[in-house]
Structure formats: structure tokens, C-alpha cells
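ARCHIVE CARD
Drawer: 12
Card no.: 0347
Subject: one protein chain, sequence and derived structure
Cross-reference: see card 0346
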Amino acid sequence: MKYRFRDLVDVPKLQELTDELYRATAIPSSIITIEGEVLTGSGWQRICTEFHRQHPEIERECIESDIRIRKGIADGEPFVIYECPRGLVDASSPVIIEGQHVANVFAGQLFMKPPDEDKERFFKEQAGKYGFDVEQYLDAYREIPVLSEEKFRHALSFLAKLAELLAGIGMGRIRELNAMEEVRDNERKYRRLLESTNTAPWELDLATKRFSYMGPQAETLFGYPPEYWKGLDDWIRTLHEDDRRRAVNFCLAETRSGRDHTVEYRMMSKDARQLWIRNVVSVVSGPEGPEKLVGFMHDITGQKRAEEERGRLESRLRQSEKMEAIGTLAGGIAHDFNNILGAILGYAELTLDQTPGHGEARENLEEVIKAANRAKELVKRILLFSRAAHEERRPMVLAEVVSEVLKLLRSALPSTIRIEEDIEEQTGSILGDPVQIHQVVMNICTNAYHAMRERGGMISVSVRSEQIDPKEADEVKGLRPGPFLKLSIKDTGCGMDPETLDRIFEPYYSTKGLGEGTGLGLSVVKGIVANHGGALKVESRVGMGSCFSVYFPRFEEKAVEQDCDSDEIVHGAGRLLVVDDEPSLAHLMKLYLEEVGYEVQATTSSLEALNLFRGSPQRFDLIISDQTMPGMTGAKLAVETRRIRKDIPFALCTGYSDVIDEKGAKSLGVDAFILKPIDFTTLSRIVRNILDTSKRSSD
């Protein structure tokens, strides 16, 4: 048993009880634990305490007597009576708790019949044998009480019931102690749980508005020591000034209504940190209404930050999806717009050819053609900007791409933003993806615009060839010695502080307002530059503008240049099948190609074109088809006509397609991939080249 018997009973009360029993019955008694600890003793006889228990030999006999008594108890008797070797009668009743013998209730040190002369002689001899003072020993002998066996057994029956009562009391006390220990264990577990969940329990007396309890976790979580939390005002002072009125008014209203409630607010810790708190409050009411509040303050700062970050990510994802949708939309619009531009340019050029002299009508037509060509270039730049697929890297002239972007920007930026261009000729080329380099320049210039849009300013752009030495390379992360092309973009905007400058390349970091940016622009720039083997350097001061220096390794081989063919119209002869679902373009191409010598049949249906070709495969020398058409695409028409006649030449035209590009068209065996709006001088040259090549192959 894990508890001592002494801890299970009220020893002073038991002593009073056995004292009263002795006064009522003159029967000596005691309660002794199984370990031999005497808890109570009443009426013990002098002959035992002053003589027998003081002599070693007799003490040993007394112990043997105790053992005999315990043996009798072990046999299951409610009590046992035994006459000790000294002639005194003893008895005992066991106290059994949870099956364990923990103590005994003793009675005895008496005679069950009046002693005679033989008994007195025995004690007198015993005094002499053990060296006791005879007169004193006999005086103690004559004090021994005499009780009949019947009365003694009645008394022992009472003591046996007392032993049972003590066992019951002990068992009840064990249950109580176990329950208390369980409560303490639960309290420890609960405390550990609270400490691990960033939670501080508290209790407030509503009558005094003072805290009757504030968990020690409050100091760990908020920094305020226990002595700080005296009353309601101390809690109110910790609230963030923007949340104080709302939180206090809400709690007061809910408390007056007797409703349990939960409130979230910001709290300022002792070290001035801003924390988010969820306070879960229970209202304890009495006969006259709410009496106290009991609650838990949970630190949910981490959860709030995670929710805010998730919200930002979701918002940026939606913005990225919008941008992707805008790119797709731009491509679709470009396709339709290219068809319109093709008709405007084509008919204007035809009309111009039919207009003699140098009159006003001819000049007007020339202006129409110039405007349409500017629109054509603008659409081309929009397509370049919105294109999702990246081109393979190839030698390219950086200055040309930068100039293209600046042309697009000039048409998009307000007049308050000026662009200064300082691009050296013959700077050389880089090995790069034109689409990605276009995006680098566009993203940096767009950021410059945002920095100047309120007051206006200037964007200065330069491209120079530089030989980077080891000292310069050490000043720019990722830069190495060698030949580089340096692109510099400088603005006169608001500039950036050091903290912002340190974070501008972080994904999703943005200083723009809601809905004005994704926070991806400069992180994408950094990734593109790094993938091209380049490096970035940014210099900025608040109020002094910013300067982005982008270094690309110079490529020593000659960059790919555009073909510079003659602007002369090329005539020819042959039978052509023209397919375009836009009637005006189909008619225009028929008119133009007939004018330069060809026999043309035009149709606005790819299915009709396939039937025409299937009916007479040898009738046509070349098919010119649009790509995006209902019923059957131009690429599919190319495949189907080649199944009928393998050597039929085929030219594919498109204003925009996310399904097929020039590389894909070539893989189908298409002879030419023509971008709309179509320049008819170029078309005449392409048609003639295809027919000449086909004729040489057949020969």
C-alpha cells in the first residue's frame, strides 16, 4: 500500500476514543501499525511498561506473543485472545485495507479471574528471577485489572468492530487521496497543455472588476508579470488602440446579456510586439446576474500571419491568372485585328496602285498605309509581350530588342513620362531568348513608370559594350570578368529605402497598391538574367530615383539578321487555291495575286477547299490557307491535302495561334509560314519562291 496507516486516520481523535473506552471499561488498549509504530495507548499497565518491556528476555517473549497473536489473526479470526508467559491476558483485532494487514487494535494486560495465592507467589518468584524490586513489582501486579471472560469478549467484539470501522475509514481516505492525486495530475497535465498551446487562463470578479486569477503563462506570452494583472483596466491598456473600443464594447454587451462569447483583437506586448489574441470567455451567473468571467487568452499571431499570407498568395494567384487570361485575350484580339489590318492595308495598296499622279488622294492613301503599318508593328509587340512559349536562345542584337520595347512603351506611357534613349551602335550581340529579354526591359521600365506616375519624370535607357575587370566583378554579385553588354535603365522617381531595396527581388513582394501588381515582375527579371548567365545591380536612394544595371555576356558570333529582300513586286504564273474564312481577305488575296499573274480560286470554307482539291488534285499548283477557321484548321487541311497529293505545295497564314508556330508548321511539311497582316510584296515573293522550288523538284 502506497500510503501509511497514520496518514489514513485521525490519530488524535483515536487517542481520545481509546481513552474514553478505558475510562468506561478499565480495559487497556492500543492501536499499533504492522511496522510496530504505536499510534495510541490507553491504560497500559505499569507492570508491562516499567518491568516486562524493560527486560531483554521478557521483551523477546512479548514479541513472540505478538507473533502468536498475528498468526491467530491470519487464520481469519475477528480477534485472538492469548495468555502471555507472564500470566497476563492479551487480545488483538486486525485492520485490513485492500487485502493488506496494516495495523492491529490491541486490548489486554489484565486477568480474566481474580488472582489467588499461587498467582501472587508466581509473580513474586518472577520478580526475584529477573531482578526486579519485589515490593514495587508486586505493587504493579496488584494494579492489574480483573475482567470476566464474558465481559472481556464483549469488549473485544467492540474492538473488532472498531478495527472494521478503521479499515473503512482508511479505505475512504485512500479513495480521497487517490482522487486528490488524480486532480493534481490532471492539473499538471492541464498546465502543460496550456503552456504548449500559447494559452493563458484567467478569472475576473465582476463586482470588483479585479482579476482573481491570471495564469503564469500570461507573462511568457505577453511579457507582463503576474502582479501587473490587477484589474480590468490593466487588460484594456494592453489592447491595440485601433481595436480597444470595439473589443471592450463587445465584451461588455455580451457580459450584460449573460452570453458566453469569443472576441479577437490585437494586443501590444510589454516589449511592443503586436500580437493577435482570441479571448474565449464564459459568463458565470448567480441569482442576481453575472458574477464573474472565466476565460482563456489564446495567442493566434502565427495563425493570423498564415491566413494573411495565404490571402496574399491567393490574391496574387488570381492576379497571375488574370494576366494569363489577358495574354490569351490579347492573342485572340490580335488575330481578329490582323485580319482587319490586312484588309485595310491590302485594299489601300491596291487602290494606291490604281491612283495616278501625286494628288491629294494618293497622299491620303499613303497616310492610311503608314498608320496601318504602325498598327501592325504595335500588334506584333503585343503578341511578343503576351506570348506564353519561350523561344530557343539564339544570337540576337540586344539593342534592337531594347529599341522595340521602347517603341511599345512610348505608345503606352503618358506624356508626363519622357524616354531618353542612348544606345550605342555596333554593341554586339548576346545569346538569348528575345521574348525573355523583352520581358526584362518591359518589367524594369514599368516599375520606373510606377515610381514617376504622380509627378512625371524621365526614363533613361542605354546599351553599351563593356569589358569587366576583376575589381568590377567583385562589386556585383554573379558578375565575372570578361566581355559584357550593359543595359542601364534609370528613372527620376521616388527611389527606395534600404529595407525595400533588400526585398525587391523576393517573389510576391510589391510596394504597389492592391490590384496594381503581382509582386512577380522583378523576381522574374532576376531569374531571366541569371538563366542568361548575367548579373543585376540596383542603386537607389529615397527621392533620388533608381538605376538598374543588367549585364549580359557578349556573344562573339554574328547575330541573326533579318532578310533584306527587295521591295519590288515579283510576278509569276500558276494556279492557286486561296482559303480564308474572312471574305474580305479571301477576295483581296484573289485580286492581288491575279494582278501579279496568277490564276486564283478563293473560298471561305476549309471543308469546301478540301472538296475542291479532292475533286481535281492536279488542278492547283499551290494552296494558301489561313490557320484559324471553323470546321477545319489550316494545319489539318495541309495534312488532308497531302494525303491526296503528297507533292502539293502549301503555305499557312496566321495572325495569332497558340496551337501552331513556324516550327510546328515546318514539321507538317508546310512550305511557308506567313504572319498576318500580309505584306503583298512579300507574299508575291514567297509564292514565286515556292513555285520555283516545286518546279525544280519535279524536274
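Annotation on reverse: Residues 514-519, 559-565 have pLDDT under 50 and may be disordered. The radius of gyration is 54 Å.
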